[in-house]
Write a structure and sequence with these properties.
Blueprint: E1 21-22, H1 28-32, H2 41-53, H3 55-76, E2 81-92, E3 102-116, H4 121-187, H5 193-227, E4 252-253, H6 257-263, H7 265-286, E5 291-302, E6 314-323, H8 331-397, H9 403-437, H10 443-450
Parallel strand pairs: 1-4
Antiparallel strand pairs: 2-3, 3-5, 5-6
Helix pairs in contact: 2-4, 3-4, 4-5, 4-7, 4-9, 5-9, 7-8, 8-9
Length: about 450
Amino acid sequence: DYVPPKTSVSKDWHTQLKGGLATGVMDPQTLAAWWNTLNDPALSSLVERAAAGNLDLKKAWARVREARARRGVTKADLFPTLDATGSASWSRSSKDTGTGKTSDIYSASFDAGWELDIFGGVRRSLEAAEAELQANYEDLRNVLVSLLGEVALNYIEVRTFQARLTVAEANLEAQKETYQLTLWRYQAGLMDELAVEQARYNLENTRSQIPTLRIGLEEAKNRLAVLLGEQPGTIHKELEERKPIPVPPLEVAIGVPADVLRQRPDVRKAERQLAAQTARVGVATADLYPKFTLSGSIGLETLSLTNLSSSGSWTLSAGPRITWPIFKAGAIRQKIEIQSALQEQYLIAYEATVLSSLEEVENALLAYAEEQHRRDGLRKATEAAQKAVELAQQKYQAGLTDFSNVLDAERSLLSLQDQLVQSEGEISSNLVRLYKALGGGWISLAQNEKK
């Protein structure tokens, strides 16, 4: 008999919760549609379309239908079988050994059989098939959790690339003005050619970064289209307008570690696979005991087709049958040992899945909180860099500093602005990874399954 494994986990998270994280009770509706917390209609639309059109999700559905059919095949073994047969044959003997005449034989019969599942082998097989079906459902939900997370991550990546392009283009325009200013001053004889070339390579260096950002943007859009089950390029138009990176909510309730084990589909799948394998131990054990079968046959047999329905053509047979393996050189017990060893492996796999899930959540908690600190530092650094550029330009124009200070300030500003945008995108991405680690997003699918 299967007993679910008892896994002891800590009552609280090891990572110190900060940055809006709290151990309050997770709202099931919020976790079921966590993407709505980012308050981005475009993202919500993409998520719904991915859930309807993604090919990996359709493949997972097909695996569920396969498991359901396999369970049906196993369940049929609990019931009697009934077969109908009919035949017509003729034979002719030789004159040397017989009469040399031709004879016809016509027959029709119904055959019934029923194996009495006294020692539970069939019931254990059905139990294993049912657990496998449930494991396939959990696999489907796990695919959905991963899919929705990937859609959100790629959407945030699109918005992050757009923001980085905006930063690079704005810096490019500012550096164009700096280059033009140095060129005029050189033409007026107020400075040497070195400053002009320095301004020009700074400008062209910034220009060279823009194609790389455009490539990243296009690749993220193409990945999104494929996740939706569509051809690359089909969603470019709707994502053409540049919009802000989705902003996380001020507070996120994550619950406690025990909630994760109940919520994550991969943990639930591993537990169901363990249950299925436990039942297979019972299937192998049942082979040690006798099998009892009731069989019977009722039919008609005659030499003439016209006499097939006469009372004299009826045949009847019925009786029980017992089979019991007496000697198989220990093969049955070795098969039981095989299934028991597999059960131990599934138990270890379940425990490993639990640890991996907790590790994933702990890492996501840390990354989400710490990235906010990094973002705050980058924001202050960017403000200081902007002021440094203005001061360097003023001093240079007044002849109080070298032009290289202007170039250094401009390069630092571009780098810090780009890092700041990436950090803002990473915060939103880390929130998505956190919800994914918590196992959010599959509850709505489970509700549809019940319908």
